[in-house]
Design a protein that fits this description.
269 residues; 20% strand; 7 helices; elongated; seven-stranded mixed beta sheet; alpha/beta; Ribosomal Protein S5, domain 2
Length: 269
């Protein structure tokens, strides 16, 4: 007697194939976020034209990094297989498109908005830095510095999150003190004209970007403390509320002898 094995009907196979494959190759309403780059500020990205000023600038003895994250554009088609690939990577995040972008926005509008926000953050950084110098270096008058005196060479990056690092970079160039002392420093956070440091998106991804460039310290906003992982290794994280706090931390390197996170009450180590 011969045995006969039943076979899955072709229609069922086709249905299974379509059910499994089609979601992988059709656009889905998500955005992918992953760590970007750490761009060095010195000597080309951030400069000050002091030719018509009564003060001088100083060469940086170390490096500061502007951090970015990679976010897919609102008009970019994201397919199911890309979402699965992102989920499989520890440094990639999938979020609904509505969380990141307004409903009717497009690539052109987002790029224009990002550039406008960055220009605004640079202006606020300059105002905050001038106030910082008035308090900490009363003999150095930088009050005549204007937005047009700042030269920022940066492409394909926008948003307000560079405010803190711009302020610290300006402080390094204008201060007679050696703030960096040969160190690699990164920072991310908005800055107001009064020196208040605000939260940014993608703080975990930006910490990874800072680690990639081997930064020793990253300054973040205290408002981002709740978004940090339970433990941070390979870099010192300092959470601040004001530009003054970050500036003082740079001026007192002996106080930076710690590991992990400083300034987050929920994570202080």
């Amino acid at each position: 007697m011969s045995l006969r094995f039943s076979q899955t009907p072709r229609l069922v196979k086709l249905i299974l194939l379509l059910t499994l494959v089609i979601p992988l190759v059709i656009p889905v309403n998500f955005v992918l976020i992953s760590p970007g780059e750490g761009t060095p500020l010195f000597p080309k990205m951030l400069t000050i034209d002091s030719s018509n000023q009564s003060f001088k600038t100083y060469p940086a003895q170390g490096q500061m990094y502007l951090l970015s994250i990679w976010v897919t554009n609102p008009e970019t088609n994201i397919f199911g297989y890309q979402v699965l690939s992102c989920w499989a990577q520890s440094d990639c995040v999938v979020v609904p498109r509505s969380v990141v972008y307004e409903k009717n926005t497009d690539d052109k509008a987002e790029i224009a908005s990002g550039k406008k926000q960055m220009k605004k953050s640079q202006s606020a950084a300059l105002t905050a830095t001038k106030a910082l110098f008035k308090k900490n270096y009363p003999t150095i008058d930088v009050s005549n510095l204007e937005d047009s005196d700042l030269k920022v060479s940066l492409k394909n990056t926008g948003g307000p999150s560079g405010g803190l690092i711009f302020s610290l970079g300006l402080s390094e160039l204008l201060s007679p003190d050696d703030l960096l002392q040969g160190r690699k420093i990164a920072a991310t956070g908005t800055v107001s004209a009064r020196g208040a440091i605000g939260a940014i998106g993608g703080v975990e991804e930006k910490i990874l970007a800072a680690k990639k460039v081997k930064a020793e310290i990253i300054f973040i906003s205290k408002e981002n403390c709740s978004e940090l992982p339970d433990s941070v290794t390979g870099i010192k994280v300092i959470a601040v509320s004001t530009l003054e706090q970050a500036f003082k931390a740079l001026r007192a390197p002996q106080k930076l002898n710690f590991r992990g996170v400083q300034g987050c009450t929920n994570l202080d180590s």
